[in-house]
Each structure stands twice: as structure tokens, then as C-alpha cells.
Amino acid sequence: MEHEEFDYCFYFEDGKPDAYRYCVAFEEGHAIYHRFTIEDYEEFGFRKGGNDMKISRVWAVYFSPTGNVKEVTNLIAKKLSEELSVPLEQWNFTLPDNRKSAKAFEKEDLVVFGTPVYAGRVPNKILPWVQQGFTGDHTPMVPVVVFGNRNFDDALMELKQELEKNGFLAAAGAAVASSHVFSDKIAPGRPDASDRAEILTFAGKAAQKIAETDILHTGLQVAGNDPIGAYYTPLGTDGKPAKFLKAKPITEISKCNGCGRCSEVCPMGSVDGEDVSQVTGICIKCQACIKSCPNGAKYFADEAFLSHVRMLEEHYTDRAENRFFTL
Ligand SMILES: Cc1cc2nc3c(=O)[nH]c(=O)nc-3n(C[C@H](O)[C@H](O)[C@H](O)COP(=O)(O)O)c2cc1C
């Protein structure tokens, strides 16, 4: 078998460092292992040391209605691309137009995959797209979740598991705290300079590990329940569940100049472009329309939603820690 036909190679230390190398070829879903003496292996022209997993491109792939996930995912992906000396590409699947056809990644891609945390999980309306919209081919990835200073609960575990079902292999992972999109009083300005420094240190370490480690046989551990737990139940100031599933943004007509920006940024395509006061489809409360309105004409008036926001402001203003995971 010619060495180009192998998917990747590695070696076991097990008391005899470098005694043998193993190369793997995937055929019809089965891994076929070939063992080489180090002499034969060198003859094949493999690189000495490391894992022989070649990365030729880094991708920043993200869903980010109000920009925090975009910023964090790009920061990690850019640092990885610099450290590994390969080009950086982006795939932003926030808008419905970019969720029309599935995207296939190759073995030599390294995909930094970012989503926000909604109710302690991957946003439930986006989960089907995470499950169906991306395929890997033993493609290394870095799952990243960004949360609004309360908790990321099982979101990172869920994102990792879902992508691993579709041919990706987690090489590192991160849960990064940000300002909460519901309130300017919760973690304002985050990610800040200190977060960015932590993120860059993590990405540098991840690049080194990716270059050195046999990803397929190591298995990344991340925080979260396995199996994944229930969605977090938002509470109101009275400590009872705050039910605002049906809440939709309201438009203050006197302030609206009909520019249509809110309709353009809605990730669900739910704001009518002709009459922006009409929310014709699902609202995921992402706040993209509210944050993007140049005239401050959009707001939520739902009492249960506002009570939840006040509860968050009362209980979740202490600085949450970022969490980073490497092999
Ligand atoms: C519907 C919804 C639910 C959220 N649930 C959580 C949560 O469970 N924990 C948390 O810490 N932040 C939560 N957040 C805050 C977001 O994770 C945070 O603001 C994130 O930065 C948003 O990402 P984006 O700026 O890319 O849109 C929630 C936000 C929304 C819109």
C-alpha cells in the first residue's frame, strides 16, 4: 500500500518509543491498521515525531446573532491559522441564506465551530442545522460556546457530541463568558482584554497539541453532563419559571424609519421586510433586531421575559470564569 493511501499515522510509546509506527486507512467505515518498523516507515518518507495529521486550512464557522460568538470564534481561528501557518476561512451560518446547503469539510481542515449558549445548551432551533448542515471526514475541530455570564451548562458537551457524530474529532474546546445579550448590566464589555489574552494562550496551546498529538486516539474531555441534561428553565424574580416562549419584539412605530435592517439580521427570517412591525415566524429572543436598530425602535414588553432579565441582573453579575480544554 502506498503511503498516500493512509488516512493518518501515529506511534505508541508503550515502553519502546518509536519501535513501530501504525498507519490507518479507513475503508467502508472500518479502520485498517498497518504496522511499520521505524526503518520502513522512514523509507516511506513520513515526518519523524508528531502525528502526521496535516492541517492545510483553518475555518471559523459560527452562528452569532449579536456578534459575541463571531468575535471569539474568529480570535481562536486566527491564532490557530497563524500558529499552524495556514490560511483562514470563514463560514457564518447565522442567516437563513447560509443554511440552505450542507457544508462538507475535509481531513486537512481544522474547524473552529462556535455557537452561543441558549438555556444551557446549543440553541434548540439551530441544533437541527448543527446536526445536518456539516460533515467532516475525520476532521479536527475546536467546539466553542459563548455564554452570557450565567453558565454554559451542557452546551459545550452537546456541541462536541453532535459534531463528532458527523465525522469531526474534537482537538480542543472552549466555553467563553461574554456580555449577556439580554442586559447591558451583565458582564458588560466582555470578552475584554483579559479574556482575549486567555483565549490567545488557549489557542496557542491548542495549536501545539494539534501538531503533536494523535487526535483520533486521545479523546478530548470537556465539561458538561453525558448524557446531556435538560434545558435550563429561565426563572423570574419570584424564583418561578418565567414563560416567555411566545414573546416577540415590539416596534415603536414613531421611532421606526422602515430601513429594514431588523428584517435583514433576523436569523429566523421572521421579521417582515415590508412591514417590520410584523414578526411572522419564530422568535428565538436573540436580540439581533433590537441591537441592530439604528433608532432604538425595537423592544420586548413581555412581563415574564423582563422578570427573567431582572432576575439575571440580580444574581449573575459576578465575573464568570472561562473554561478551556486541550488534549
Ligand atoms: C434565548 C437566549 C438564552 C440564553 N441562555 C443563556 C444561558 O443559559 N446561559 C448564559 O450564560 N447565557 C445565555 N444567553 C446569553 C448568550 O449566550 C450570550 O449573550 C451570547 O454572547 C450571545 O451570542 P451572540 O452575541 O453571538 O449572539 C442566552 C441568550 C439568549 C438570546
UniProtKB/TrEMBL annotation:
Keywords recorded for this protein, A-Z:
Iron, Iron-sulfur, Metal-binding
Has UniProt tagged this entry with the keyword DNA damage?
no
**Boundaries of each Flavodoxin-like domain copy?**
58-207
Kindly give the Pfam families that the UniProt entry links to this protein: DUF3877, Fer4_9
In its UniProt entry, the species of origin is given as Maccoyibacter intestinihominis
Q: Give a yes or no for keyword Iron-sulfur in this entry.
A: yes
Q: Which PROSITE patterns match?
A: 4FE4S_FER_1, 4FE4S_FER_2, FLAVODOXIN_LIKE
Q: What name goes with this protein?
A: EFR1 family ferrodoxin
Boundaries of every 4Fe-4S ferredoxin-type domain copy: 247-276, 283-303
Please give the SUPFAM superfamilies that the UniProt record associates with this protein.
4Fe-4S ferredoxins, Flavoproteins
